[in-house]
């Protein structure tokens, strides 16, 4: 799933903010329309874009997001097991806010990963390796980080490697050549799936050397805008099979078209699957994006632009500073945590004498 900003910016209209909905409906409200989907998979991953902290010293940037620590329950109550924290809002209230966010996610049972901290999630006999890369401000250094992080996951015995990237240009539905270069590098180094976010809109999927590259999942439960013009999003799932610990080439893909809101007139912060004609229209749009990628239609990298929405004052920009850059949040280059997957499913484990599955990532 894409960008999850569970808090707000202090300058936003509090009456239409995500915290207003939390205060009225509680933690279980936000994922109520997708929880049944997430409960059936083995591992659910979000990009956590913001902070869970009580810090009050705001970074000098246009938009800074924070939420109280207890908002981590929004994820843990909804069968979300892991969160990428490598993005440009991860230290919006200083370095301590990043440390707080990691602790508060962990305390809630959410396994965080990002920057040089990789993670291993155990699902039955399978070790799923996760890495999160923040690419926006320094493409060249990220290439080495991709190599180092994937190598670290291999050394920790990962059977499956998923690389998450925070990259691209806001409101741009076509990926750029920087994204393609890093995505291909990740696959070449051993990633089995590449997931992207940051543009706040959907981008297409590329199939490279038998692996899927999902360039942007858009927003999901997004407190950064009370009424974005583009509310399209999706839950992207992939089911992997393993034989003697080796991932097989028959991964199954499932796309669930959604809106970030249960209503079209505003953002009510309640992601909802689309139905009927709306469902098919979004599938067709994604297909068009995929075809453009297959035809080699990649943008030339450009300076990122702010994300604005007509008719609102709480527009969000992810480029106003480099908060969350690696210089303030890196752990040791080869660090890895080791967590147990908490997803509920009946498809994890041995399906015959030599084959395992990991379902619906």
* Low-pLDDT residue intervals, each spanning 5 or more residues: 305-335, 339-354
Instruction: State the name of the first-level CATH class.
Output: Alpha Beta
Q: Which sequence of strands runs across the widest sheet?
A: 11-12-10-9-8-7-18
Strand count, sense and barrel status of the largest sheet are: 7 strands, mixed
Number of domains: 1
Strand composition percent: 25-35%
The total of helices stands at 8
Shape: globular
| Average of pLDDT | 88
Order of helices and strands: EHHEEEHEHEEEHEHEEEEEEEEHHEEE
Judging by the overall fold, what is the CATH architecture?
Answer: 4-Layer Sandwich
> Which class best fits the helix and strand makeup?
alpha/beta
Q: What is Rg?
A: 19 Å
Helix content: 10-25%
By DSSP, the count of extended strands is: 20
Query: Between the first and last Cα atoms, what is the distance in angstroms?
Result: 10 Å
């Amino acid at each position: 799933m894409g960008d999850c900003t569970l808090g707000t910016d202090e300058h936003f209209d509090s009456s239409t903010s995500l915290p207003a909905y939390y205060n009225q409906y509680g933690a279980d409200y936000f994922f109520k329309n997708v929880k049944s989907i997430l409960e059936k998979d083995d591992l659910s991953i979000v990009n956590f874009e913001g902070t869970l902290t009580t810090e009050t010293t705001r970074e000098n940037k246009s938009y800074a997001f924070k939420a109280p620590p207890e908002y981590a329950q929004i994820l843990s109550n909804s069968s979300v097991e892991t969160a990428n924290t490598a993005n440009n809002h991860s230290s919006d209230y200083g370095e301590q806010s990043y440390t707080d966010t990691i602790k508060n996610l962990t305390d809630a049972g959410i396994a965080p990963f990002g920057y040089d901290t990789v993670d291993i999630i155990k699902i039955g006999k399978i070790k799923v390796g996760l890495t999160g890369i923040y690419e926006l401000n320094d493409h060249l250094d990220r290439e080495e980080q991709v190599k180092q992080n994937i190598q670290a996951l291999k050394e920790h015995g990962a059977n499956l490697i998923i690389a998450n990237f925070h990259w691209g240009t806001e409101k741009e539905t076509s990926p750029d050549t920087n994204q393609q270069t890093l995505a291909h590098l990740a696959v070449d180094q051993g990633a089995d799936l590449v997931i992207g976010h940051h543009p706040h809109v959907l981008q297409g999927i590329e199939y490279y050397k038998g692996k899927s590259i999902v360039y942007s999942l858009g927003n999901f439960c997004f407190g950064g805008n009370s009424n974005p013009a583009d509310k399209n999003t999706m839950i992207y799932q992939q089911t992997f099979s393993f034989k003697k610990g080796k991932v097989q080439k028959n991964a199954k893909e499932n796309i669930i078209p959604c809106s970030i809101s249960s209503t079209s007139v505003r953002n009510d912060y309640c992601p909802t699957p689309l139905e009927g004609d709306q469902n098919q229209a979004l599938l067709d749009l994604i297909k068009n994006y995929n075809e453009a990628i297959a035809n080699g239609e990649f943008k030339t990298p450009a300076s990122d632009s702010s994300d604005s929405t007509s008719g609102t004052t709480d527009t969000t920009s992810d480029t106003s500073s480099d908060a969350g850059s690696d210089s303030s949040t890196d752990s040791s280059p080869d660090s890895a945590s080791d967590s147990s997957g908490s997803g509920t499913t009946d498809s994890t484990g041995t399906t015959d004498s030599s084959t395992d599955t990991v379902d619906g990532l």
